[in-house]
Amino acid sequence: MKKIRQIETKVINKIFCYFQKRYWLYQYELYRLKYDLHSTFKFNGYDILFYGDGSISIGENTYIGRNSSLQASTGTKITIGKNCAISYNVKIYTSKTFFNYLCKC
Fold this sequence. Notes:
The protein has one helix at residues 2-34; strands at residues 36-37, 42-44, 49-51, 55-58, 63-65, 69-71, 77-80, 85-86, 91-93. The protein is an alpha/beta fold.
């Protein structure tokens, strides 16, 4: 019975991994349609999020690691040049809100 349970677990895991991979490949294609991403740009892993109504432009031979996100607010732009390596768990956000900080020394 234990052996059957192990086989079931392996099969379920393989099915899950297959659909997870398909989901992210599809999501990355949608990002390519919405944003200006060079054809050599690489999504290096899963859980990479691009979102917002702003502009995202990424140059050639650049990659971004897993669990990273780029968020471009309306009217803002994120530009990443060519030959850049963005690590995993990186968060880049834009904002049109400007803050004035007073330093009371």
